[in-house]
Amino acid sequence: MDNDTNPLLSIRNLKTYFEMDEGTAQAVDGISFDVYSGQVVGVVGESGCGKSVTIKSVLQIVQKPGRIVGGEIIWRVQQADGQEKLIDLAQLDAQGKKMRSIRGSEIALIPQEPMAAFSPVHTVGSQIIEAIRLHTAVSKKEAKRIAIERLHEVGMPSPEQRMDAYSWELSGGLRQRAMIAMALSCNPRLLIADEPTTAIDVTTQAQVLNLLRKLQQEHNMSIIFITHDLGVIAQVADYVVVMYLGRIVESGPVDDIFHNPQHPYTMALLESIPTVHSASKEFLPTIEGSIPHPFNRPAGCPFYPRCRSFIPGTCDTQTPSLQPVNEKQSVNCFLHHQTAVEKQN
Amino acid sequence: MVTPTGITDPPTPQPIPDMPHYSPEEEVDSIYVAPNWKLVWWRFRKHRLAVGSTFIVILIAIVALLPGFFSTKDPHESVAADLLIPPQRLHFFDEGKLQLFVYAIEGARNPETLRMEWQTDYENKVLLRLFSQGYTYEILGPIETDIHLIGLIDSDSDEPFHLLGTDRLGRDQWSRLVYGTRTSLSIGLVAVLISTVLGIFLGGLSGYYGGTTDMIIQRLIELLQSLPAIPIWLALSAAMPRTWSVEQTYLAITVILALIGWTTLAREIRGRFLSLREEDFVVAAKLSGSKETRVVFRHMMPTMYSHISASVTLAIPVMIISETFLSFLGLGLRPPAISWGVLLQEAQNLQSIALAPWLLLPGLAVIITVLTMNIMGDGLRDAADPYSH
Amino acid sequence: MLQYIVKRLLLLPFLLVIFSIFAFIIIQAPPGDFVTSYIADLAASGSSVDQAQIDALRERYGLDQPMHIQYLKWMGRIVTGDLGFSLDWRKPIKELIAERLMLTVLLGLFTFVFTWLLAIPIGIISAVKQYSFLDYFFSVFNYFGVATPTFMTALILMWLAFSVFGVSITGLFSPEFVDAPWSMARAEDLLRHIWLPMIILGLDGTARLARIMRANLLDELNKPYVEMARAKGMSEWKLVIKYPVRLSLNPLVSTIGWYLPLIFSGSVIVATVLNLPTIGPMLLRSLTNQDMFLAGTIVMIYLFLAVIGTLISDILLAWLDPRIRMG
Questions:
Q1: Cβ–Cβ of C155/B317 closer than 8 Å?
Q2: Smallest CA–CA separation between A273 and chain C, in Å?
Q3: Residues from chain A contacting residue C231 (CB–CB below 8 Å)
Q4: What is the predicted ipTM?
Q5: pTM assigned to the model
Q6: What is the CATH number of domain A9-244?
């Protein structure tokens, strides 16, 4: 791993809101984290916590009425002369040339549903070739050669024939491999994987994860890996960001998050994973309640109604912020706020 | 969990002695589930255009219910002297005072063309009032009355008063239009009712049983839908004996329209049944031993009511237009029956329109009715099924 | 693909048999047979008919035989190209409808192309720019298009043209070309007249198709493959045209199956109002005059055109959508 001191991607106080008739949904509400070169960052959270919107914001493909209303997405660009340049993606025109030249070539996406992410009336090959030719000036023939090579690389059996297949003719695992091949087609520096294993079965899941890990090391890519599955995170991620209702509740290196969780939400999440050691007739602990509707987000800490360590008078009136608890981990909780705790005392 | 369609009745909350903090009010409040029709209404209410259209549709329906009350003249009465009088505009204020009136109209025969030519006489006013007395008619069945919404103050006067003018036989077009509303609307309604019953029955069979039944019904629907409707209607209506009475043709026309019109609804119902068949609550009902009729009528049908009502609303205007087509071409209802299509027959060629463009006005009634019903139906459909386009 | 088309083509004769039975029933529906009405007709015009002649006619058309034999005879004559004789026009039916049929098909095709050329862009703009001014504008246009019976559009335009410009816009030819033999000048004259019936006939369909296109495209625009194409870095318009528009054309193509028949049959009314020399007004006249062989033949033609429409739509759909082609 090349241990650059400067992050490849740096998200600062990103806010993406959906303004609707019924009110404004603050899908992403001021999150910040960094992705370093060669690092796999796992973003975990329940559905609706804003993890998908976060990465769509990075790619600037948030659907209307969603809109980035604030914050910065700093992307480090390696220029031809070897110089480095910082670009704030949030400031770019979403449909402009500059953003489009980054999308798909420098930052690529592996979507959640490989079935639906391929057009059913175009062959898989033609869609990969298109991705290549969008960003590199190569002939159709050359693009085809690259596409076959990529398919080969992701372990697609008989890639030449698969070029002419339609996505619905492939199995779930092969479809996801084809998707990965398409994402890799332009040698991206950052790969964003949006729950890439949710739609496929468990045995294939493991293969896809291993493949991603392997490709990441070979190409020295960075990956933002989005999932609600902590098991998957433990397998692939170097660094973990835990999200709840549009905010980061805790972030830190994967080992610290799993072995030394600080936020009550992270703890609860980890407790709800079944382990081989748990007694068979025992109920698995669950997190009480359900995620509040984004339109009526509770005042104060969004997690307090479900929190075991709720501090009345503090958590429901003030909003905590993400603060470091040690040199590696940051937590967004009053339990770790020196000032707040002191106020309590 | 109580489904929003009210399929299973929510169990009445029983006091549970072991739970100290249980407060029934709070609990009932938090599990309150609005019945489906209420949800549909809440969503429909937001669609302002659809709500506005609904008001107009209701108005039209009231006119169709009480044509005698809204008419000003006997629709069949023809006054030989009053041929092709242009519409007389209704005025509401006379010198600042609230007073309904129209300007009098004077006719003179053009010595060259030998046609009557009508001139508005701005010196003379024909005074009108609400709830005036006029010809006697039967209101809502056998009750006789002579009260009309609007009419001459002096009910014995024979001063011409024609809100929408007269036709070439000197009949009052407004009154004919009002009576035509009844016929056209009811034909649409009856035809849709027949085709709805057919559509629900055949679509339901098709979707619920699937297999061969489904195959046969689907082929039949495809066949019927690929038929060119208008020539078929024309041919079928031409086959009606000329000797049939007005009532018989009326019935025959509705049946012809319904026989061709049921396919769309049947397709939709089938699709619903096909997807509902796999739903957990249907499977659960079947597994718990419900009879087939119970599964269909108690569990499946209620989830479709709002959808069916939207489809029906959208089908009525199609039927109305179809009737207009048929009668316009002289193969539907025939005089002395009065319908919008029969009225528009008067405006079939350029000569009559050039001479009396107001004969096209019944067409406006068709457009307004169809337009408002379509908007209302679309609003209803969106409200019934917010997740599909 | 070939297999698919062959399968569809094999279905064709089957459908035609069903339709021909249907048309035959229509011919037979009015009380009495047509020889009776022919005799009544002749008697009314004062000419006498001798029994031998009547019997010959009856035998020729097999009227003394059971229904199914009559049907088979009729079909046999049609297959050999003998469409029969119109009693109303006193002419062989083939001669009567040849040019009218051509003009009907021509008007239908013009209208079809016109509607598609108009409806697809309207649908795309309304969907891509949903809730914009144009979307609302087209929405209003669509509602009126669907709500206005075609004959009303024809009548209103006719009246406007007459009262504002003082011209009478009826027929498909200028008076000097009505009975003229075909020439370049006559074809040109036709093109100068055909656009108005085309617009009138196409308005309702344009509204319907644009609505379908809009709804389809709105559905497709939310599909993950659109987002994926965006994530690849394609430009917005290019990706919209290449993926969602392409996919929403499929349901539109399947409308050809009912839309072509709708145009042809809708033209009956417009043609009657505008007095066009197509088969529509002839059908109407034959029905009112109980000229049943002519009516039956024309109904049969309409049914045949409908089958062709379905066939075209099936083949196009298979060509456009690999899932159907291979499934």
A1: no
A2: 30
A3: 59, 61, 103-104, 108-109, 111
A4: 0.85
A5: 0.82
A6: 3.40.50.300
